[in-house]
Amino acid sequence: MTDTIPMIHEDALPGHESALDPKPEWQPRYPGSGRLAGKVAIVTGADSGIGRAVAALFAREGADVAILYLCEQDDAEETADIVRSEGRRALTIAGDVGDKAFCENAVAQVVAQLGKLDILVNNAGEQHPDKDITDISEQQLRRTFQTNIFGMFFLVQAARPHLKSGAAIVNCTSVTMYNGSKDLLDYSATKGAITAFTRSLSENLIGDGIRVNAVAPGPIWTPLNPCGGADEEKLATFGEKTPIGRPGQPNEIAPSFLFLACDDASYMSGQVLHPNGGMIVNG
């Protein structure tokens, strides 16, 4: 794809999970019950954060997992080891979800090596805080949309021929879509687009038995914030404004993705779950 905008290097994105202190909690909290037995899932941004926790939980519940990530190979390989430790197959694929050709090649590789595709989790995203809208460069604006929403379109387009009745798509939106974020104008705008995309795609695919839902996390301790330009003051109080009074951990969010991906949610499509520390939003 020749018109893909180069990645911005103004910050440390996507960031190494291994560099965080304290470490995010990705470990599944309970034994598996086979809710995804025999399934094959793609999880984007699965090298760290919420994506790693989702991959770990999916594997515990019986799924083979393809781990799509941008460039943090050491983190991605650790996630793959976690999946394999649960007795499941893991496949790591590095590349930019904002590149349509990469998405097509990645899906083809998953189907060729893992045999099929049942679940697509669109989790990868990027953010770049700015105090003033005039500080957002055209390159940054295009890049944020390219990763956060164009990548979802590209992956769904690539996956669609392989998704049969009973398949599930789960997108990651954000509490910023509902509450807004004065310093994350472009990021929150993409999350609004993701929610609208989720609802519309559900209407488009439900007749073929493919469910589409989303999860809207609140402030979660992952590499996205410390490596995405958040200042020390924000990090020192990160998550404290939630009613629960702290940031969430990735393994507190992963069960929402599992629920929407498995047959427990067989009567749900076009919906958004809100693991956000108790913030009340208009869902």
Automatic annotation (TrEMBL):
Chain positions covered by the region annotation Disordered: 1-25
Keyword Oxidoreductase recorded: yes
InterPro entries, per the entry: NAD(P)-bd_dom_sf, Sc_DH/Rdtase_CS, SDR_fam
Keywords: Oxidoreductase
Transmembrane regions listed in the UniProt entry: none
ATP-binding in keyword set: no
Signal peptide range in chain numbering: none
SUPFAM superfamilies noted in UniProt: NAD(P)-binding Rossmann-fold domains (SSF51735)
Domain of life of the native organism: Bacteria
Residue ranges, compositional bias (Basic and acidic residues): 8-25
Similarity comment: family membership: Belongs to the short-chain dehydrogenases/reductases (SDR) family.
UniProt protein name: NAD(P)-dependent dehydrogenase (Short-subunit alcohol dehydrogenase family)
Source species: Sphingomonas japonica
